[in-house]
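Now for a chain:

_____
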Amino acid sequence: MTDALVVGGGPAGLMAAEALLDAGRDVTLVDAKPSFGRKFLMAGKSGLNLTKLESFEQFLSAYSIDGPAHPTLRAALEAFGPPDVQAWAEALGQSTFTGSTGRLFPTAMKASPLLRAWLARLDRAGLTRHARWRWSGWDETALTFDTPDGTRILTPRVTVFAMGGASWARLGSDGKWADYFAAKGHKVADFQRSNVGLKVHWTEHMTDHFGSPIKAVEWRAGSLTSRGEAILSEKGLEGGGIYGLAPALRSKGARLFVDLLPDLSVEEVQSRLPATLKKGLAKTLRNTLRLSPVKIALWNEFAKPTPFPFSDLARGLKALPIHRAGLRPMDEAISTAGGVPFDILDKGLMLRDRPGTFCAGEMLDWDAPTGGYLLNACLATGLWAGRHAAGYATTA
């Protein structure tokens, strides 16, 4: 008999383990990879965005892409929102700062110091950790694991699963757990790519622009818009400006448009254009409208299949269709939607059909853009599940 078991050593699992330790439980944490927090460390390589400091309702709207955020997710975020994330990081000795857009970062701009401090605190609290323990399903109520020392079977009083979604398999989130859930009759929503780049089949003339940032534009797909930057790469389009549009672009036939002059109206663009084209279109775009070389390249790439007469040039510049070849593969996605739906869980994130078993983090079926929202929800649901698991353990 194991008292409290947490499966998955990412932010959600670590937070669940801490909540259980704080409640006085004996906690064992296992992870399939050789070390803990591998995706967390990768996310921090480009500057760890912890959360975003803004009004709670505005913050919550990031989780309301396909309708209002589920009440349980909302409750978890209310219990551990952006100010709590900031206090948590600073309690681990990591000073923070807020960027101009409200995004919160550790001053070190890396995940490794935060993770080391966190693991050290958990170890001091009595956490037992095992790496290279891969969950291989249930044997009745027991859990089986493939380990370096052979098969291990545990019968915990409570379990918190925090095994991630189905992206970045090399870091541990391969989604294979879904097969074991489905085999026991636990519903799992199909995984879908989110926060992912686009495939674009560029013509040869775009080669010189690979690696160029596309700034000061607005991207539109369905009802979603983004003023974020994107990078033009050999594979297609990458970056925050594109990632948040994935929920709209997942639909077959969904169209993507870019506004090359988002700070001007159609009428304002038209007023800056000459009555007739005398100096050539490229010179007009460059000298009159001050478009950057990469914007002009985008125009040349996509306006030809959808020709705009000069009289309609302003409208075309404000809604240039981007002809894409789909989303990048699942394993390249920063996150995934799908997973364990909230309707098979109770308010404490416990499986209704398997008492004592809780789920947290990206295993749950929710979606959000990058910018701190992903990490905050992982931490919040991990804490929420851990606290409710601790409460259940005292009464079971």
Notes: The chain has a mean pLDDT of 94.
